[in-house]
Amino acid sequence: MYGANMQAMDWSDVHYCLAVIQEGSVTAAAKKLGVNHTTVSRRISALEKTLHASLFDRSTSGWSVTPVGESILPNLEQMQEAASAIERSVHADRKDLNGTLRITALDVCIQRILLPGLKAFSEKYPSIHVELLASEEALDLSVHAADIAFRTTNNPPPNVVGKKIADFNYGVYATKSAWEDYMAGRGDVGAISWMLDGNAIPEWLRQSYPDMPIRYRSNSLNVIYDLVRQGSGFAEIPCSLGNSDPDLIKIPAQGVMEPMGFWLLTNLDLRTTARIRIFRDFMLDYLQPIVERFESQSAL
Question: Which UniProt keywords apply (predicted)?
Fold first, then answer.
């Protein structure tokens, strides 16, 4: 019975009760709250009905607090402070829903995955200005080089927090004509490799096409993708990228890279900042319906 009563308690009734105690009279409380004195009286009566107890003794000379009212006064004041803290927090969040948000991701991730979500976010929160850092580098979030990082990794750094959105599967792709030329022995089809591997031969190339020369190396996934689309050779790229392009086909290959986690990361100290928290939740909601495309190894 007690629990049911407490659930039915209306905070605004408590607010009126405290105003009478603090101001010393119903009239003074009504003036402070900007309402009619009958409203104050009615709300306090509602609170007493909820609590099944009288909080004030009414007389022609005024209202005085009952022993029950005095005994619960500290609790009522705690409720008031809690409500004020909530209001302060909401107000701080509203003030924080502006300014600049620095986001870093691979260029191809921004172009092929994030742009529609970023557009929708900016339309909903026009006071937050987004800076996009298209970078392959693991920017140090601990020194606020960026606020949010979208990264493909299976080992996020220890000084950040985040959520894994999906696992990117990889495959080797080429245009149909490049594949046909290779199978027929026509032309001089080559491979396209990731520059950051140095002069190392990619495992897929070593195992599946050991005699194929590396024609291009690049530090940009976007450049590698465009080279493949132009028929410049075979390359290992995310399946979600290759499968979404009707000009590309997935070709047989062993030694393909293991799946890589796709993460949304932020600095430990900034994780509760309003604009970062709201952006994180917004983008996670936006990306969730297309996770299947990220993780698929074949065209959907």
Answer: DNA-binding, Transcription, Transcription regulation
Strand order through the sheet with 170-175: 214-218, 191-194, 234-238, 170-175, 248-251
* pTM (global) more than 0.85: no
Tokens representing residue 196 in the block:
């950051």
Query: What's the CATH architecture for 2-89?
Result: Orthogonal Bundle (1.10)
The CATH number assigned to the domain with range 97-168+260-295 reads 3.40.190.10
pLDDT in tens, 97-131: 778 888 989 888 888 889 999 999 999 889 899 99
Q: Which amino acid is at 296?
A: S
- 128's torsion region: left (phi>0), alpha (psi -120 to 50) or beta? beta
Among 108, 51, 42, 102, which residue's Cα sits nearest to residue 266? Answer: 102
Which residue, among 38, 6, 82, 51, has the nearest Cα to 16 in the 3D structure? 38
